[in-house]
Amino acid sequence: MKKCKRIIATLMVAMMVALCGHQNLVLAQSASSIVITAQPQKYVGKAGEINYFEVSATGTGLTYQWEMSKNGGSTWEKMTSSFSGYNTNRVGVTMKSERNGWKFRCVVTDKNGNKATSNVATIIIITNEDWELPIM
Q1: Inter-residue contact 102 to 53 (CB < 8 Å)
Q2: Side-chain half-sphere of 78: how many Cα atoms within 13 Å?
Q3: What is the DSSP code string of 11-29?
Q4: Contact 80, 91 (CB under 8 A)
Q5: Radius of gyration for the alpha carbons in the chain, expressed in angstroms and rounded
Q6: 105 contacts 57 by C-beta, under 8 angstroms
Q7: What does the pLDDT read at residue 136?
């Protein structure tokens, strides 16, 4: 399908050159817009579990890069291959008590280099004491 679109675009340019009688046409490249249709959700649970943060988006030629902040969102760093799916729309994070309060977001880029950043999702680790029901 991509190849057909390129051929059609090439033929259209050739027709325009033939009709206009010059080759100095300036073609505007349309920017594809990215729309994030589903945002990652916060995690509230126990340490030791694996949570998957997920984002859905529409656009052409999308790539994904998850980022994390260990300081409340003041600075962000790209996640690496130590996190499963760090460069897909779904990243897996093992919940650890030291990750309590960490924040995660995804930067989505289209084929033209346009970027959109998801909402932030936060990890909230609940300790074993918090899971126990009060004695009545």
Answers
A1: no
A2: 8
A3: HHHHHHHHHHS-S---PPP
A4: no
A5: 23
A6: no
A7: 61
Tokens 């998801």 -> residue: 118
User: Whole-number mean pLDDT of the chain?
Assistant: 81
Q: Strands, DSSP E only, in the chain?
A: 35-38, 43-45, 50-54, 56-58, 63-69, 77-78, 90-94, 103-109, 115-117, 121-125
36-61 confidence digits (pLDDT tens): 999 999 999 999 999 999 999 999 99
Q: Which residues contact 118 (CB under 8 A, 6 or more apart)?
A: 36, 39, 40, 55, 105, 106, 107, 108
Q: Is 10 left (phi over 0), alpha (psi -120 to 50) or beta?
A: alpha
Positive or negative: CA dihedral 67, 70, 71, 75: negative
Residues in the chain, overall count? 136
